Amino acid sequence: MTKVPCKNVLYGTLGVCMGLGGIMSQMQCNAGGCGTCFGCAWTGISVVAAALAARKNTHRKEEDHGAV
Amino acid sequence: MQTNGVKQGFFTRYRTLVLFAGLLLFLPPLAFVFQVTTGDDGFCGSWCPRMFFSWRQGISGHQFLMGFLRSFMGVALVVGALTFTFFAGRYWCSHLCPIGGTTELGSHLIPKFLKIDFSAIPAAPVRYGYLAVYLIAPALGIGALCCNYCNFATVPRLFGAAFVQADMAYFYRAYGLINLGLIVGLGFLARGGRAYCNFFCPVGALDALSNRLGATIGKRVTVSLKQCNGCSVCRDVCPTWAIGMKEKKAVIDQLSCFPCGKCEKACPQGAIGMARARVAI
Fold first, then answer.
1. Is A57 on the interface with B (CB under 8 A)?
2. What are the pLDDT digits (tens) for B116-146?
3. Which residues 6+ apart lie within 8 Å of A56 measured at CB?
4. pTM of the model
5. Which residues, 6 or more positions from A14, have their beta carbon under 8 angstroms from its beta carbon?
6. Is the CB of residue A15 less than 8 Å away from at least one CB of chain B?
7. Which residue of A20, A23, A37 is in closest CB contact with B174?
8. Reported ipTM exceeds the 0.95 cut
């Protein structure tokens, strides 16, 4: 049985979180809840966290990114 | 300037011009494609490429198919792009898409020290995690992601905001601002300008799957392992961080690669070109 790399699961979860954030922001906006929007905040925080993580990683290791 | 002697095709050599042409064809104020076809003012409407394949809870099969009719040009665009990609590669994403073209061309205007390198984040898991929510959430009745975070709505409105008040008003709402933030942060400020495409575009996600599935049938960007010396110059120029190094050789992930030609141009060994890939599925 193939072992699923933890990194793929972690970042797949990030993608799922981003998607859920988008849905939550749509629901909140539809309800007229602009300004108290957890969904948009969730999305924004996720993106900022990802950007900070990306910036911190200045030493890229040689690795296989799911290569052909 | 290309010094490795590799001769690229016309559309790849002049890809920047082709991307500009895409901006003129699809984006305000000209938006020729919409004006001469359906009279829409943008992708929202019969040209919508995102909504038709989203099944919402409670709709019938007939209603689902009616969605295809409502966005018939979007269906044609996506089906055409996926089919073309399967046999020839991701030329829609790399050469024609006005959304990715805007962020990529825009990122050229941003100084290097301001840019964020997202290559440490594997794009495919994020992209398909997002696509999973995109497809499953409406079917479960949780909500829909079609219009929210829609790149095909946001970028045209960015151009249109200078001419039309309604487009400017889009950015007064919270999700308009978030979309703008995503385009800026993951587009203009990203190294390569394609992080938004790589993470959040459902059309691109499907296109990448088509690219991967058709890799043994059509030509793709591939590396000659004999000629590759592991210098990793190609990895550094790739806008979609599709190139990794394995055992001191460059390997290309066909789930992220599109034929922009940057790696081909940059490789000092001339080791990169278009050929049928060997794919382990």
1. yes
2. 888 888 899 999 999 999 999 889 888 777 8
3. none
4. 0.86
5. A46, A50, B121, B125, B126, B129
6. yes
7. A37
8. no
